[in-house]
Design a protein that fits this description.
heterodimer; A: about 100 residues; mainly alpha; Helix Hairpins; B: about 475 residues; 20 helices
Chain lengths: ~100, ~475
Amino acid sequence: MLTLSHYLILSLLLFSIGVAGVLTRRNIIVVLMSLELIFNSVNISLAAFSYYLHSLTGMVFVVFNITIAAAEVAVGLAILVCVYRRRRTTNVDELDELKG
Amino acid sequence: MTNLLNINYYAVAPELVLIGFAFLVLILDLLLKGRDKAVLGYVTAFGLLVSIPVSYFTNEPVSFSGMVAADSFSAFFNIVFCVAAFLTTLISMDYMKKAKADRGEYYYITLFAVIGMMLMASANDFVNLYAGLELMALSFYVLVAFKINDNKSVEGALKYFVLGALSSGILLYGISFLYGYAGSTNFAEIARAASAGSSQNMFLILGVCLTVAGFAFKVALFPFHLWSPDAYEGAPTPVTALLSVGSKAAAFAVFLRFFAGSLAVLQPHWAMLIWVFSAATMLYGSVVGVSQKNIVRMLAYSSIAHAGIILIGLLVTNDKGSSGVLYYLLVYAFMNIGAFSVITLFVRNNGKGANICDYKGLASKRPWLAFFMALFMVSLAGIPPTGGFTAKFFILASAVNSRYYLLAGIAVVSTVISLFFYAKVIFYMYMKEADDASVFTASPGAALYNVVIVISAVATVLIGIFPSVFMDMAVQAVKPLLM
């Protein structure tokens, strides 16, 4: 029997993996993948709450999230392409022109 | 059914006007060729001007089944956004030519960013709020990267994007817990659940902490400020002006509506969190600002310190504190955009004009500009008779009234420290001689800069000399929040 806690633990695990990936990975493409994990963990948690609370708002929110996350990735990849054209690298540590 | 949904287009009239103008600019950009494109900036500015009276007369507190609250509170913020975007559009027309990034997209993406901010200010539901937040954030990622042939611009945009998306994720995760707690994403429903239930509910605590962290990113509070100096320095300077004023004001609008409005009953529980954020942000912003050589980076840290002081007004959950926040944001819009206009006028593609020492001897070459720059610095530092002083005064008075003595003391210390770097700019302008006066030659489009600088300076001084007029407006604006 799957309960609400199972889904919440799954979403917490995914969220933690995502945040850890964003903070520790040096390759920007892996960072973008970790960001997707975070958004999907939120979708799981919203959908689970929606199912167990018998309320539709959560489901609607999930659809909004998926749409917005797609737009977000499009913009992110576009910026990444710009950076790659200028610097020929996708490593975070080599992007060090701005500091102080 | 229509009654239940309560679809009311008057409630979103300011947004609709701007959407109309955004599409008009988009189509004109396709149709016009070559030099005719200069008209795009004026169309954008005109659209923003039209939106100001529309925002003023919009008053539909409950519409779209409670998702949109277009009350006097959102009207105040909408006007601040429109004025800020109007002024930055005027200075960006010449700047974009100078930076060789004169493309039509700039104007309608700016308009979409403003629409996102307006949606945030009138949002009364997390679904609506999140859509507005992302519309604003996505537009700003593009705007920061707008000089695509400049290493700093794209690098700043990438850093802003990664941390901004991370903060959206954290915010969303917090929203999902609040939804699980209240069974609804509506602010009013969450407020009802919070006042009825226990304050020790785990979902509620998680939800509040994560949403605070998400918004702290947007406002650039201390541990979450890392993106802001890099994005500010990399972005085209007019975009920096709009980013520092607009996105900050929009995030504070949400902060106020949700925390001071809906979660006011739980103030004793979240107050400690905000207290620590506020104190750390004020001290960090002013201390690190002292060591900056780049003037835009210095203003970035100054804006972090200002956010800490504005947060005090949020912490004091009464009409004095909340109206103080609105007043502060209004003054901040004018003085910050004024300072950034002077910088935009002088900054060159090769990096000249971006350092504080480049302003040596400005007073002997261009006395009026030096005077206005000094005025903006004095106002940012909080010295009378400027608006910056009265804004700080109202916030600190509300803190003392509500017995946050220590926090008010920290705010005063931070103001004194930050005086050092504002005074440094004035010192360089008035006390030193220029080594290379070629930086100060005017560009052909200088007339528009002068208009923006004079408007900002007059507004900064007027708000400082007649505070009661503007304070009454702010008090009227926060009435719907604190019923």
